Amino acid sequence: MIKQRTLKSAVKATGVGLHGGRKVNLTLRPAAPDTGIVFHRVDLNPPLDLPADPYSVCDTRMCSGLEKGGEKVGTVEHLMSALAGLGIDNLHVDVDAPEIPILDGSSGPFVFLLQSAGIEEQPKPKRFMRVKKAVEYREGDKWVRLEPYEGFRLDFSIVFNHPAIDSTATSVTVDFAEHSYVRDVARARTFGFMQDVEFMRANGLALGGSLDNAIVMDEYRVLNADGLRYADEFVKHKVLDAIGDLYLCRHPLLAAYSAHKAGHALNNQILRVLLEDASAWELVSFEQEAATPAAVAHQFAPVALAA
Ligand SMILES: [Zn+2]
């Protein structure tokens, strides 16, 4: 049986909020089966619970945030991506600020934290969202699509017309039947342009942004002294983001995702398009080993739990 997962024990981290620029305390705590991923704003009185939910997503300009009753928790996508990548279904996320800390701009530090706490299987079947028919969402020349696939594959392409990005691969396919989230995706950092950073700061955004938590480029080149972590780190980060954005549907997808120039907003729209068509998806679980698709068995193999 492919089982649900949570953490063995609670784990804490401290980091800087990308937009507010202030110190943020984060605690990840085990949760019972069928809880899902629930964010808790513990700095509010009373604390506010914000469950991962595609219909609570707000402010998709720069990052994916969840909103309820006028309060929000922003920059959830890299943590959600790590949770999807490690197959964690149930978790309480306590945070004392309106955003999750940016850490190094990738999901690598979240993967390290989660693996340090230890991952525990729970005696309930993991429930997958199986895409039964293709759905698509377009906005101008940007598009995103989900198609039936007995596994989880992502195809992404980007166009930036920037010399530093164009000198790397601008399209990638990640298929978890063969690729490893931890090895192939988790270390890809977010990226930005110096002129945008200056504009955002003037508007009170990205106050915590620095070369420590993003790839930053001027008009011609990457400014980070150490260069890139993957030869195709830019498009890989778009895949990392998509994995996190899609996991806001609360279940791992059985689907092939493909996207061109898409971002957080389109990733959220495609989930809404999918959910609104009841004939396009179903929830399934794999209780018999023989009935488990090979790609799913590989992606959620218990061996991946070893820290
Ligand atoms: Zn990102």
Please report the first level of CATH classification, the CATH class of the largest domain.
Answer: Alpha Beta
SSE succession: EEEEEEEEHEHEEEEEHEHEHEHEHEH
Radius of gyration: 18 Å
Bound molecules: zinc ion
CATH architecture of the largest domain: 2-Layer Sandwich
The major sheet is characterized as: 7 strands, mixed
Overall strand count: 19
- Measure the end-to-end span: 21 Å
Query: How many helical elements?
Result: 8
Mean pLDDT: 93
Shape: globular
Protein name: UDP-3-O-acyl-N-acetylglucosamine deacetylase
GO biological process, one term: lipid A biosynthetic process
InterPro entries: Ribosomal_Su5_D2-typ_SF, UDP-acyl_GlcNac_deAcase, UDP-acyl_GlcNac_deAcase_C, UDP-acyl_N-AcGlcN_deAcase_N
EC number: 3.5.1.108
Quick summary of this structure?
With 307 residues, the chain is α+β, with helices and mostly antiparallel strands. The chain contains eight helices and 19 strands.
Give an overview in words.
The protein is an alpha+beta fold. The protein folds into two domains: 3-125, Ribosomal Protein S5, domain 2; 128-305, lpxc deacetylase, domain 2 (lpxc deacetylase, domain 1, 2-Layer Sandwich). The chain has helices spanning 77-86, 108-117, 163-166, 181-184, 194-202, 233-246, 264-276, 294-299, and strands at residues 3-7, 11-16, 23-30, 37-41, 48-51, 57-58, 65-68, 71-73, 91-95, 119-125, 128-131, 135-139, 142-147, 152-157, 171-175, 191-193, 215-217, 253-260, 281-284. The strands form five sheets. Strands 11, 12, 13, 14, 15, 18 and 19 form a seven-stranded mixed sheet that branches. It has a five-stranded mixed sheet with strand order 2-3-9-4-5, covered by helices on one side. Strands 6-7-8 form a three-stranded antiparallel sheet, with no helix packed on it. A hairpin with a 2-residue loop joins strand 7 and strand 8. Helix 6 (233-246) runs parallel beside helix 7 (264-276). The longest helix is centred in the C-terminal third of the chain and has 14 residues, at 233-246. Zinc ion is lined by residues 77-78, 190, 237, 241.
